[in-house]
Amino acid sequence: TASGFLIFEMTKKTVALTLDGEEQTINTHAKTIQEIFDEMDIGLRSEDYVYPSVDKAVKDNMEVVWNPAVQVKITDKKDSEVIWTTADTVQELIDEENIELSKHDAIKPKLGDKITGKMDIKIDRAFKIELADGANDKTEEVWSTSTTVADFLSQQDIKLGKLDRVEPKLDETVKENDVIKVIRVEKVTDVVEEPIEYAVVTKK
Length: 204
Known about the structure:
With 204 residues, the protein is an alpha/beta fold. The protein has helices at 2-10, 33-39, 90-96, 149-155; strands spanning 13-19, 22-28, 49-51, 62-67, 70-76, 79-85, 106-108, 119-124, 127-133, 138-144, 165-167, 179-183. The strands form 3 sheets. It has a 4-stranded mixed β-sheet, with no helix packed on it. It has a 4-stranded mixed β-sheet with strand order 6-5-8-7, with no helix packed on it. A 4-stranded mixed β-sheet has the order 10-9-12-11, covered by helices on one side.
């Protein structure tokens, strides 16, 4: 019995596992990578990253890496989609999904942020707006992802004086090709000198 147990143990293969970033070493009689995960009672999803592939034969001193996929929601304008991904960062996910972003588009969280489970990624697409600011007396074409006139002015770092006016109003929704007019109002006092008739009093 002792000899049989010794032979059983000696015929096991040594496998180095990296499971979701954690490293461990096991000894196993599993014939394939899939059998290793079955022995460890780990359920695999088709979206998970496994290297080598699950149908590969187990060899002694083999290294196996498993990164489980996480669920992420992507909202692009009004369209939402829930996907499974093994991407490490938001940038990697955007590249994976072949989502094109212009330099004016806004995305939250930031591209360099780490992907976490049930993360909600929101993409705001930029559109063109005409801005007429009375401060510099010219009209320019700008890009915006704002939803209201007030948001747009904040995004463009435009400050209003107490008497200044904006067309359309601050709480109105901004749409593509809108024209935002900033009317600068300055209060001045003019001093005008005019000759007046003297009052004449006649006394004897």
